[in-house]
Design goal:
- This protein is of the alpha+beta class.
- The chain folds into two domains: 1-62; 67-167, 2-Layer Sandwich (Tetrahydropterin Synthase, Chain A).
- The protein has helices at residues 3-60, 98-106, 108-120, 124-128, 130-145; strands at 67-70, 74-78, 85-95, 157-167.
- Strands 1, 2, 3 and 4 form a four-stranded antiparallel beta sheet that branches.
- Helix 3 runs antiparallel to helix 5 (130-145).
- Belongs to the FliL family.
- Controls the rotational direction of flagella during chemotaxis.
- This is Flagellar protein FliL.
- One of its GO terms (cellular component) is bacterial-type flagellum basal body.
Length: 168
């Protein structure tokens, strides 16, 4: 009879030992998850802080505002099969900075000559559509960017805005 209580005690210790091992494994797994969560949160916090520092640095350097140079209006004869057609157009050039404005002003006869030649080569019907005007803007930018001297630098013209556009 003494053997029966011994077995009962052993089985009770085995059950307690099995439960305590499960609890220990669960506690270790929970601790690992908590530490991983803390580490991930810290990494996210620090990366956001670094990004916000970089954003502040980028925001502190303001982008240069472009300069604008209005041109006197142009009046040219257009190519036309149906009779005399005229184009009267006024425009403003968008350039990188005031230095470019001064450079273009100093070479205004070249710019005006280039643009007069370009405008007078156009057909009235192609300038009536929005697509035709967009193509003309691109061509004007290309002409305005050309260097003033054979080995000179290109001008920094980034846009053209029509302020008046009349075909008659």
């Amino acid at each position: 009879m003494s053997k029966a209580p011994e077995k009962a005690a052993t089985s009770a210790d085995g059950a307690t030992a099995g439960k305590s091992k499960k609890k220990l494994i669960i506690m270790i797994a929970a601790a690992v998850l908590v530490l991983a969560g803390i580490g991930g949160g810290a990494a996210m916090f620090l990366s956001k802080k670094n990004h916000s520092d970089k954003d502040k640095e980028q925001k502190s350097e303001p982008a240069k505002a472009p300069s604008f140079l209005p041109l006197e209006s142009f009046t040219v004869n257009l190519q036309s099969d149906t009779g005399d057609k005229y184009l009267q157009v006024a425009m403003t050039l968008q350039v990188q900075d005031d230095e470019q404005v001064n450079l273009i002003k100093a070479n205004m006869p070249q710019i005006r000559s280039r643009l007069l030649m370009l405008l007078s080569s156009k057909d009235a019907t192609e300038l009536l559509s929005a697509e035709g005007k967009e193509r003309l803007i691109e061509e004007i930018i290309d002409q305005a960017k050309l260097p003033f001297t054979p080995k000179g630098d290109a001008q920094k013209v980034s846009g053209v805005f029509f302020t008046s556009f009349i075909i008659q």
